[in-house]
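in:
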């Protein structure tokens, strides 16, 4: 999958009609300088040769350079990726926490007013675009009331946890809200199916309290399907985080790739897209491994 991603990213960026040498060196560069840059970076070679040169550099950990000062793409990503992962993790935790609470309540009070109310909330959350909610949150909590900051420097969590949390609250909520709606529906459906099984009726008939059955058996057995869906949604979370970062001016992958697109820094765009794709693949592998922790029966399969 990673090799396939490298081919796709390289081919798509190679189709860019903008001359990479001109974009890096500027319009004032002469033909000799442009030719020297193309030869130095292999841009005068056939596209197949360029790809294998690119792949060889990747194996050595070299993602290339960008800009007139030949800044390192790897260093830029090393600064931006932690910000994106922090935002994605916060959005994931907030969205998943509320989804589990609402999904369980909705399943336990099936077809009652609690279930109907949560259904309306979850459908509204699914239909809400993250970027629109982000702008709304800025208007309500930052621009008009100044309760929470919508821009400014993101401090290190260990240096100033209070300021870090204040800076991350709004973008995390904007990212988490649609995820909460989607996961609430999945958890509710999975819980309802599990509550209708014979072992639940047997346990309740034996006098075991419903809360104990739900906490120890039903919820754990019902998490297989939500975890599968969550693994797929993480990719959308990372993609959404890239957009949210631009709105809230966070120095993450979104801001970096926007810089690359505006300035036609092909190597920077390639590096960011590739790292995001590999991160998504690794997260899905971790999710697959979580199945064993949730349901030990899978170990024998």
């Amino acid at each position: 999958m990673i090799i396939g991603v490298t081919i796709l990213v390289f081919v798509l960026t190679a189709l860019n009609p903008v001359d990479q040498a001109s974009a890096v060196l500027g319009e004032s560069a002469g033909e000799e300088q442009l030719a020297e840059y193309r030869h130095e970076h292999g841009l005068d070679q056939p596209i197949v040769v360029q790809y294998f040169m690119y792949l060889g550099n990747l194996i050595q950990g070299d993602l290339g350079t960008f800009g007139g000062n030949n800044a390192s793409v790897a260093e830029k990503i090393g600064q931006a990726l932690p910000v994106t992962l922090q935002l994605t993790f916060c959005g994931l935790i907030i969205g998943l926490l509320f989804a589990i609470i609402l999904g369980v309540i909705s399943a336990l009070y099936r077809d009652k007013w609690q279930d109907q109310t949560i259904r309306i909330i979850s459908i509204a959350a699914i239909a809400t675009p993250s970027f629109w909610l982000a702008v709304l949150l800025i208007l309500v909590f930052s621009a008009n009331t100044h309760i929470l900051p919508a821009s400014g420097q993101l401090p290190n969590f260990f240096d100033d946890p209070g300021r870090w949390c204040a800076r991350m609250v709004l973008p995390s909520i904007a990212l988490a809200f649609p995820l909460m709606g989607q996961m609430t529906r999945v958890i509710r459906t999975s819980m309802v199916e599990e509550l209708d099984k014979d072992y639940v009726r047997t346990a309740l008939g034996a006098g075991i309290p419903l809360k104990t059955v739900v906490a120890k058996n039903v919820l754990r057995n019902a998490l297989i399907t939500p975890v599968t869906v969550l693994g797929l949604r993480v990719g959308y979370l990372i993609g959404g985080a890239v957009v949210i970062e631009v709105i809230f001016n966070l120095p993450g992958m979104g801001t970096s790739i926007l810089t690359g697109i505006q300035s036609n820094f092909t190597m920077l765009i390639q590096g960011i897209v590739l790292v995001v794709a590999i991160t998504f693949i690794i997260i899905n592998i971790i999710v697959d491994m979580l199945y064993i922790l949730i349901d030990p029966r899978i170990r024998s399969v």
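note: The chain has 13 helices and two strands.
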